Amino acid sequence: MSALNTIHCFGDAQHSGTVPRDLRHDAVCGVSDLIMRLDARWQSRLSAGDDLVVTSGIFQTDVQEHAVTRISGHVSFSLEARSLNSYTLTAFAEEIMATAHQVSEARGVTFRFDSPVLTEPATLDHSVFAALKHSCEALAVNHLELASGAGHDSAIFARQGIPSGMVFVRNQNGSHNPHEAMEMDDFLLGVGVIQQTLEEWK
Question: Which residue windows are transmembrane per the record (predicted)?
Fold first, then answer.
C-alpha cells in the first residue's frame, strides 16, 4: 500500500542580505527540517521491525520567484510512504502531520497538504508463485522470495482477476538508476525460469 502527497511549504520571501537568521521564515529550511525529522522517525520504525519506505523524489522552489539571493517563500515537494501494513502507513501519516506542526511552530512556516493518492497493495496468484518457485528449484537457480514495494503492471492484472506473478533479476545498482548493471547471464536465468514455468503450466 502506498500514499503519495504533494505538499507545499510557505514562508516569507525576503532578500538574503537583509534578514538575520532569527527573523527568517525560510521555506527551504522548513521542508529540509521536516524531511530530516521524518527520516529519523522512519529509522525508529525500522528499528522496531515495521515495514516502511519513505521517499521525497520531487523538491522544488517556485521558478517564478527563486533566486540565488532570495530566501524562499514557497517550496513544493512530494512525500511518498509505502508499506505492506496499512496500520503502519496510517500511523506514519499521523506522524507526518504531527511533525509538520512541530516544524511550523519552530520555523514560522506553514504546510499545505494536497489530497493524497492512495494505492492498495495487490496480492499475486499463489499458483503462479508456486510454479515459478518450482522452476527455480528445478533449474538450480538461487532465488529469494520477496514482496515488492514498487508498483508494477502485474498488480493491475491481478486486480482484474488475471493470475499474475513476477520474476526479478538482480541488478548491481538497482532500478531507476542510470548506472544499472544487470549481468546478461542473470537475465538469461530469469528468462529460463519463465520459459520453464510456461512449458509446465497447466
Answer: none
